[in-house]
Amino acid sequence: MLKRIQFNKIILLLFLIGMLAILGLGFFFIASLNNLNNQMQMGQMIDINALKNRTILVLVIAGGALFAIGIFAAVFLSQFVIYPINKLIESAEKITDEGKEKKQQNVKNKKGNQTRELKNVLGLMTTELKEKLSEVSTQKNQIETILLHMTDGIIAFNMEGQIILINPAAKKFLSIRPEDNTFEDIFKKFKLDINMEKIIYLENWTSTEQRIQVEDKYMNVFFAPFRNEKERPDGVIAVIQDITEHVKLDNMQKEFVADVSHELKTPITSIMGYADTLLEAEYDKETQEKFLNVIATEARRMAKLVTDLLTLSRYDNSSKIQRESFDLGDLVKKCQDKLAIEIKKKHHKVDCFVTADVPPVYADKYDIERVVLNILTNSIKYTKDGGEIKIYVGFVYNDAYIKVFDNGIGIPEEDLNRIFERFYRVDKARTREMGGTGLGLSIAKEILDKNGGSIDIKSVVGQGTEVVIKIPTKGDM
Fold first, then answer.
1. Can you tell me the distance from the alpha carbon of 418 to that of 424, in angstroms, rounded to the nearest whole number?
2. Is the separation of the CB atoms in 361 and 326 below 8 Å?
3. Model confidence over 200-258: pLDDT tens digits?
4. Could you tell me if 423 and 309 are in contact, meaning their C-beta atoms sit under 8 angstroms apart?
5. Which helix or strand (DSSP H or E) is residue 275 part of?
6. Which of 76, 133, 177, 261 gives 20 to 30 Å between its CA and that of 96?
7. CB 85 within 8 A of CB 3
8. Predicted pLDDT of residue 300
9. How far is CA 287 from CA 107, 292, 293, 470, in A?
10. What is the pLDDT of residues 421-442, one digit of tens each?
């Protein structure tokens, strides 16, 4: 920074210089006069004192003039030289300071802009990071929710065979214990010809799908490797599906085909055998009638079987039923009348009671009649001669009901859960002997399901059976 020239310092400096010059000049003249006085003492006497006084006066006057000139010079220099120079210096300093301030301000502004830009960038990055984290969190929650509520089981293993992910369905399906933490712990008990090395490294290995049985359930397990972002194997995932119902349906279908084939084969064999016998030789009228009765009986069995199969097929493929309003008590009594001959043959005591003012039911009358006839027929067939059958028709809550009690042979407890399956018989030999097809209760359940009703059977071997049928009244439909 430039320094300003100060006026008092200049005057003092000039004054000192002038005084030093005058003093130096005075001492010089005094020394000269002393020399001259010494010389004159050797020759002629001169008034030295007067000369000294005059010299001192001249010096004083010269000093004053010099002092005045110095002051004038200082004022002149200050006014016309120093002052403009100081102005120039001030201007330069001002310009310099302004430049510095401007430069500093520019630096500050630049730093401020950079800071703001940095804050903006950081803000954008923070916002994007928050959005990414929120998106990741949302996806994580969605995946967890999906896995939690999936009906299929999911288990993921890392390369060491340790569980890294498992959902509740998998734990339930495979009965996984808390100590089962690895691939071997879970699957070795099922004795599968499978390990993680085969799944991960043998791409053409075809046995990645295995069927296992856990107690009374069947599971289908699909194994597949998964890879990381570098397309390298990173573990194995197992998907477990409960195929118990599929297996049961498959077995039922096979059993159904076998039963139908057997049920048709038996009467057809009898018909063909007796017909061929009649054709081969002449028999008396009594023998012919006997053989023809057997042929007619077997033909009726076949007709009934076909009719029952067509009925089941109709209910399986169609949901349309012809509903109407009718009196359930009257219907039950008519069914009892239709079976009067069979009841009389076995000497049964059958009583029918209508226990309440039953409102009209609203259902397919023909189908409900078929159900009642089927239940009553079973009671008559499987109750020993001279047995007792009681029928109650009533109304409870919003349903009309039919209860049929008998003191027949009963049904074993282990068979009660399967009696509504098609072609299922408790005693196949005895049922076939009595002309049953094993479809009656299946048809009854199908009919009641279609009409919004229900059927329930309780039984004790050797004591009898109780059948309860519920049918909605007209006001409930």
1. 7
2. yes
3. 776 655 447 788 888 888 888 888 888 877 778 788 888 888 888 888 888 877 777 77
4. no
5. helix 244-280
6. 76
7. no
8. 82
9. 129, 8, 10, 49
10. 776 666 654 455 555 566 778 8
Q: 3-class DSSP state for residue 150?
A: coil
CA distance 345 to 385: 8
Partners of residue 236 on adjacent β-strands:
157, 225
d(CA 418, CA 438): 11
Of the chain, the percentage scoring pLDDT greater than 90 comes to 4
Q: What DSSP element (H or E) covers 141?
A: helix 83-149
Helix (H, G, I), strand (E, B) or coil at 10: helix
Query: Which residue reads 């310009």 in tokens?
Result: 95
Nearest in space to 339 (alpha carbons), one of 413, 431, 406: 406
Q: Are 394 and 354 in contact (CB under 8 A)?
A: yes
pTM across the whole model: 0.49
Residue 288 tokens read as: 């012919």
The three-state secondary structure class of 152 is coil
* CA distances, 232 to each of 23, 198, 226, 433 (Å): 107, 15, 8, 67
CA distance 358 to 393: 8
AA identity, residue 300: R
Residue 468: pLDDT band with limits 50, 70, 90: very high
Per-residue pLDDT tens for 179-189? 888 888 888 88
Supply 59's token pair.
């010096």
Query: pLDDT value at position 6?
Result: 55
**Bridge partner list, 243:** none
**Encoded tokens for 210:** 């295995």
- CA-CA distance, 363 to 349, in Å (whole number)? 29
For 191, the 3-state DSSP assignment is coil
Strand-strand pairing, 388-396 and 349-354: parallel
Does the pLDDT at position 362 exceed 60? yes
Is residue 271 within 8 Å of residue 295, measured between CB atoms? yes
Q: Quick one: tokens of 224? A: 């597949």
**Residue type present at position 318:** S
Going from the C-alpha of 335 to that of each of 58, 312, 343, 349, 464, the distances in angstroms are 174, 22, 12, 15, 21
CA atoms of 6 and 128, how far apart (whole Å): 65
Helix axes 365-381, 440-450, angle to 10 degrees: 150
The one-letter amino acid at 273? G
Whether the per-residue pLDDT at 475 is higher than 60: the answer is no
Give the CA radius of gyration of the chain.
63
User: Which stretches of 138-215 are assigned E, i.e. beta strand?
Assistant: 153-157, 163-166, 209-214
The CA angle 7-12-18, to the nearest 5 degrees, is 125
Buried b (16+ CB within 10 A) or exposed e, 43-72: eeeeeeeeeeeeeeeebeeebeebeeebee
